[in-house]
């Protein structure tokens, strides 16, 4: 099948690469000319395990190509994916300007029937707006062409995006009628092997399914962070509680890890967008408001612990930091808890000496060169001369460190662990002062 993907970000590029892998002819369109040029040279704009070889292979084989030429893109695909960003507006609602701009572009250039698939995360009612926009432009052009708008939200996780797209656990397809069903089945047939993963529904339900999924996951995390804070005060261990409740299959082990707050480009933005949508309807979404408030506070947990520990002595001290990305296996720093930590420490006059396996270039891009930030090449180098160690991201390589070396390199044997990587008793036996999340026992 001939497929066009508008937007070569996390979602668009990964989706395009896996569609090419199964044999579809994919053309990606982006307004970012540098990104397009880089991709043609084999420079991949994001770090995502397994993505680079897939992109290189299919660019070489001709199944995957990149362009800034929107007209060529519209001409190419029977199917047109919209996979552009939907960042928060000033008031937190989803900014739909990029989605609607692509809808306009498609309508301006289409000469044959098209199926337009919205993969971006968009508020309920957006498919109606896309449909109306395309109809309006076609009318102004004075042409009559058939088109379908489909809502097909994406559920991939960063850091596992390729495998999530190759093996989706469900494929949500929201349509206005049955007309695009066969084409959607054919498009996703290669990913629909063991059991039927396609779930057809109306477009509004498909749009809400995406927000409901992310908000449910964010709710689980904020709930666990609240339990962790209570556990600390009650002298209980949240890690024991986590295992205790996770063993109930109705609760499950996934997404109940307490920590230093959820980040990333999606949970914070999507919880906020659904709050705004609710408010616009005159409805107060109390659970969502609490999920957001608990998370905002949780991000200050590590900086507060550091400030409490060092008190007035913090100014002028250097703090070692392991992990900058919002989660492991990505270089994405959007809404990362490490940013709140660094910014709070800087405000208190402390310096940060940080290491991350993938996100240091991105950190440099965001903060530039500054006296109170040193980025170093290894986790060991981050410790040198630092007053204490803070861990914000649970990269595998941080899980079994050389504790003797940590002790020898740090000025004080103090670890602030935002991801509960270690056993408190073992660290205390080694002479560390160990702060973790919810480990009150
Ligand atoms: P991104 O910011 O990484 O990429 C968006 C791309 O769209 C950019 O390259 C930008 O240049 C391009 N673009 C903007 N306007 C364009 C236009 N008019 N024509 C062509 N290209 C244009 O975004 P992302 O993280 O891939 O997210 C895209 C959407 O998917 C969002 O709605 C997001 O919420 C949703 N989503 C993201 C993830 C994720 O893990 N990142 C997962 C599921 C869903
Ligand atoms: C999330 C969803 O998991 C995807 O299904 C969805 O497609 C995506 O958002 C999206 O809509 O963009 P992602 O943000 O890539 O994916 O990463 P997650 O693995 O969900 O982690 C998000 C944040 O929650 C991270 O900061 C992580 O550290 C935190 N988290 C996760 C916890 O604090 N505890 C947990 O138990 C799980």
Automatic annotation (TrEMBL):
Keywords: NAD, Oxidoreductase. InterPro entries: 6-PGluconate_DH-like_C_sf, NAD(P)-bd_dom_sf, UDP-Glc/GDP-Man, UDP-Glc/GDP-Man_DH_C, UDP-Glc/GDP-Man_DH_C_sf, UDP-Glc/GDP-Man_DH_dimer, UDP-Glc/GDP-Man_DH_N, UDPglc_DH_bac. Pfam families: UDPG_MGDP_dh, UDPG_MGDP_dh_C, UDPG_MGDP_dh_N. Its EC number is 1.1.1.22. Gene3D superfamilies: Cytochrome c1, transmembrane anchor, C-terminal, NAD(P)-binding Rossmann-like Domain. SUPFAM superfamilies: 6-phosphogluconate dehydrogenase C-terminal domain-like, NAD(P)-binding Rossmann-fold domains, UDP-glucose/GDP-mannose dehydrogenase C-terminal domain. It catalyses: UDP-alpha-D-glucose + 2 NAD(+) + H2O = UDP-alpha-D-glucuronate + 2 NADH + 3 H(+). The keyword ATP-binding does not apply. Transmembrane segments: none annotated. It is an enzyme of class 1 (oxidoreductase). Pathway: Nucleotide-sugar biosynthesis; UDP-alpha-D-glucuronate biosynthesis; UDP-alpha-D-glucuronate from UDP-alpha-D-glucose: step 1/1. Residues 320-424 form the UDP-glucose/GDP-mannose dehydrogenase C-terminal domain. PANTHER family: UDP-GLUCOSE 6-DEHYDROGENASE TUAD (PTHR43750:SF3). Belongs to the UDP-glucose/GDP-mannose dehydrogenase family. This is UDP-glucose 6-dehydrogenase. It comes from Alishewanella maricola.
């Amino acid at each position: 099948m001939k497929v066009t993907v508008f937007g070569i970000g996390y979602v668009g590029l990964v989706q395009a690469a896996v569609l090419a892998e199964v044999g579809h002819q994919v053309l990606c369109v982006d307004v970012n000319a540098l990104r397009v040029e880089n991709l043609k040279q084999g420079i991949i704009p994001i770090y995502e395990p397994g993505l680079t070889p897939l992109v290189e292979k299919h660019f070489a084989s001709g199944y995957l190509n990149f362009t800034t030429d929107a007209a060529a893109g519209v001409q190419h695909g029977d199917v047109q994916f919209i996979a552009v960003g939907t960042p928060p507006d000033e008031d937190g609602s989803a900014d739909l300007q990029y989605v609607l701009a692509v809808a306009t572009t498609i309508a301006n250039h289409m000469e044959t029937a098209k199926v337009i698939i919205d993969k971006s995360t968009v508020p309920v009612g957006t498919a109606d707006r896309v449909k109306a926009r395309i109809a309006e432009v076609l009318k102004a052009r004075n042409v009559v062409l058939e088109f379908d708008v489909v809502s097909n939200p994406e559920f991939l996780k960063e850091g596992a995006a390729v495998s999530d797209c190759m093996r989706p656990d469900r494929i949500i397809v929201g349509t206005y009628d049955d007309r695009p069903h066969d084409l959607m089945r054919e498009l996703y047939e290669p990913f629909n092997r063991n059991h039927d993963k396609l779930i057809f529904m109306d477009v509004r339900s498909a749009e809400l399914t995406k927000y409901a999924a992310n908000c449910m996951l964010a709710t689980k995390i904020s709930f666990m962070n609240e339990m962790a804070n209570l556990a600390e005060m009650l002298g209980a261990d949240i890690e024991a509680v986590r295992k205790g409740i996770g063993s109930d299959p109705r609760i499950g082990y996934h997404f109940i890890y307490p920590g230093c707050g959820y980040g990333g480009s999606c949970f914070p933005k999507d919880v906020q967008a659904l709050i705004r949508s609710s408010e616009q309807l005159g409805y107060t979404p109390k659970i969502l408001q609490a999920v957001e408030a608990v998370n905002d506070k949780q991000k200050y947990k590590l900086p507060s612990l550091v400030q409490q520990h060092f008190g007035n002595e913090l100014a002028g001290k250097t703090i070692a930091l392991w992990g900058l990305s919002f989660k492991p296996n990505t270089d994405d720093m959007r809404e990362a808890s490490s940013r709140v930590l660094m910014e709070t420490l800087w405000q208190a006059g402390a310096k940060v000496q940080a290491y991350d396996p993938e996100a240091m270039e991105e950190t440099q891009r965001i903060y530039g060169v500054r006296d109170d930030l040193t980025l170093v090449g290894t986790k060991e180098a981050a410790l040198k001369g630092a007053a204490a160690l803070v861990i914000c991201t649970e990269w595998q390589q941080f899980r079994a460190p050389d504790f003797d070396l940590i002790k020898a390199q740090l000025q004080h044997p103090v670890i602030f662990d935002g991801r509960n990587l270690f056993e408190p008793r073992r660290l205390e036996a080694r002479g560390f002062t160990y702060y973790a999340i919810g480990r009150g026992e």
